[in-house]
Design brief:
The structure is a single chain. By secondary structure, the protein is mostly helical. It has 9 helices and 4 strands, in the order E-E-E-E-H-H-H-H-H-H-H-H-H. A hairpin with a 2-residue loop joins strand 3 and strand 4. Helix 2 runs parallel beside helix 5, helix 3 runs antiparallel to helix 7 and helix 5 packs antiparallel against helix 6. The radius of gyration is 30 Å and the shape is globular. The N terminus is likely disordered. InterPro entries: Rce1/LyrA-like_dom (IPR003675).
């Protein structure tokens, strides 16, 4: 279609060349716009090319298909691990959601315990397989409830940025953001760092190990290696449900939210401290803090929650499978756990 433009040319950021000072009065210019191409002077992907011949001004409008140079954020920092998230919610939402997630987890456990009591089930009379199945059901319900609370309190900010609550199975071995590649790197780094931490603790604390009678792992010892059903339930709890819940809450929400005010590396450390403290095992705080740091750094690298979930799952599942193997070989795994503290 043809269009007629009446305008007065002055200095403008959208012109690609300077006009002669002689062209300062209103002029009449004809330009051609192809069908299906909407025109607006403010359209970012359209450019105006202006040429002048013998006092006549020609304006050509064309679509710019040249990819623009990526905009550098965070003062030019290009490392993903240093970039912050674009957090849409404020501190009130963060405080309320964190409190709601904690309360919902505790209340769900209390309601489940009360339901078992009122149903007439006697836990002491149940078989190990039945106890394992109840534990799996309890963890599944708690995971669903807490994640539902988390999403319901943050859904009002939809649509969220693409890198918040992101579970992306694509490109698992991409060098920069491959979730499986960086899960392997993070797991290897976590193993080395935790081994070094354990050695340092043994050196400074002497030979007296801390008591771990209240640890969740010690409480699960009767179920480890007792039967295939119990082992499958334990793997489902520790290798699937717990990683999904904890990584979505501690990394996907809490750590991401902290980057609204803190640099990403500092947010990783703060969230790792909260993660370690939430397990209520003071004797294991250093190791859990190191693990939480590895989980946070790997997530910051890929911006994909599958990365810390896989590290967490491999870590927990590896512990259960190793203890099951040792149990079947006749070792006293409780004594081994106490000795490794």
């Amino acid at each position: 279609m043809a269009a007629t433009l009446y305008t007065s040319f002055t200095h403008s950021s959208i012109s690609t060349r300077s006009l002669s000072s002689r062209i300062s009065s209103p002029i009449k210019a004809h330009f051609q716009i192809s069908e299906g191409l909407p025109f607006s002077p403010l359209t970012p992907d359209l450019k105006l090319r202006i040429t002048s011949t013998r006092g006549l001004c020609t304006i050509c409008c064309f679509k710019n298909n040249t990819p623009e140079e990526p905009v550098k954020k965070e003062n030019g920092l290009s490392w993903p691990i240093l970039r912050r998230w674009d957090v849409p919610w404020n501190w009130q939402t963060i405080s309320l959601t964190s409190l709601a997630c904690g309360l919902s987890f505790v209340l769900t456990g209390l309601i489940e315990a009360a339901s078992i009591q009122y149903s007439g089930l006697k836990i002491e009379e149940l078989s190990l397989d039945e106890k394992a199945e109840i534990l799996f059901a309890d963890q599944a319900i708690a995971t669903a409830v807490v994640i539902a609370v988390l999403y319901s309190l943050t859904k009002s900010f939809s649509p969220l940025p693409d890198d918040i609550y992101r579970y992306d199975w694509r490109e698992p071995f991409d060098l920069k953001k491959g979730w499986l590649l960086w899960a392997g790197i993070g797991l290897g780094g976590a193993l080395a760092a935790i081994a070094a931490t354990g050695a340092a603790m043994s050196f400074f604390n002497g030979e007296t190990p801390p008591q771990r009678e209240t640890d969740a792992l010690v409480q699960l010892l009767p179920l480890i290696g007792s039967s295939p059903i119990s082992t499958a339930c334990l793997l489902g709890i520790t290798g699937v449900l717990a990683p999904i819940l904890e990584e979505t809450v501690f990394r996907g929400f809490f750590m991401v939210s902290l980057t609204k005010w803190l640099p990403t590396p500092l947010a990783v450390l703060v969230s790792a401290s909260v993660f370690a403290g939430a397990h209520l095992t003071p004797g294991e705080f250093p190791q859990l803090f190191v693990l939480g740091t590895a989980l946070g750094l790997s997530y910051a690298q890929t911006r994909n929650l599958l990365t810390p979930i896989m590290i967490h799952a491999f870590w927990n599942s590896g512990v259960i499978l190793l203890l099951t193997f040792l149990q079947l070989q006749g070792y006293d795994i409780k004594e081994l756990i106490q000795a490794s503290s």
